[in-house]
Specification:
The protein has 5 helices and 7 strands; from the N terminus they run E-H-E-H-E-E-E-H-E-H-E-H. By secondary structure, the protein is an alpha/beta fold. The strands form 2 sheets. A 5-stranded parallel beta sheet has the order 2-1-3-6-7, sandwiched between helices. Strands 4-5 form a two-stranded antiparallel sheet. It is globular and about 45 Å long.
Length: 137
Amino acid sequence: MAAAPRILIVDDDPSVREALGMLFEREGWSVFRAETGEDALAAARRTPIELALLDLRLGKENGLDLLPQFKSLRPEMSVIVITAVGTIEAAVEAMRRGADNFVVKPVDPPRLLAIVAKGLESQGLRRKTLQLERASR
């Protein structure tokens, strides 16, 4: 049996971390929570995270600043940026920095679950591609 996907929720709002965590745990996914960028990077270093749900605004931090660091640590990781303040400019910048998707809060749970499932699928394909590339060297 395959291990449960590991999802990291990075949001400075504890109620958002808890609500999303419960939603994903009901799907059988392993959930890790982080309040700050520093906590998120520490979690990604410790655990092979498949997908991160990253708030655009983490208090005084800009969530987008974490994207290149996540991709450097785990190139196959899917990252979904989620924000209450969504602009076209922010979405374009998130995608430019490596986000797989950009979601504006509030988002209904079935839609978010579908987006996360798609992100996990993309992560799996990237992981297999990286494995094949390494094997062919």
